[in-house]
Fold:
Amino acid sequence: MFNALEPRRACALPSTLGQGRRSFILSIQHTGRGKEFHVPYADDWGLSPDGSQIAFVDENEKESQIRLFSLATNEWHDVQVKGWSGFKSLDWSPTGKTMFVAGFKSRETSSLLEIDTEGNVRELLEGQIVWAVPSPDGRYLALNERVGTNNVWLLENF
Structure:
């Protein structure tokens, strides 16, 4: 999966190394130079809009956390998200201040969450949410929900 939305200064291209490790090649816009780094984590991930960090979630994780990896310092920061677990997906908001995450409230129900980098969470939609991707201007969200019928939802003023 190639992860880049306009406008971005960087993009990351992942590859699997095996044994739960993943390699990423980070490419900086205008220079074309790539930097490879390895992380021991990643069911789903998202590159921040400014290219400074990558957020990771593990859907099998029993703990309620999102892991942030700083590309500048090569350091990890764990974001604790109280009351939620089993995160399935992650996409950054265009501002880079929050992330859209599908998380489990119970075994039957997942919700679309907006989580900031301090772990504060706002539930946006309850259902069988799989993922959500914001439009580059931040006004719309495209989302995937597992239901028995097909439909399109539009979230406004989120």
About this structure: The chain has no helices and 13 strands. The two ends are 27 Å apart (CA to CA). The first strand starts at residue 10 and ends at 18. Residues 1-7 have pLDDT under 50 and may be disordered.
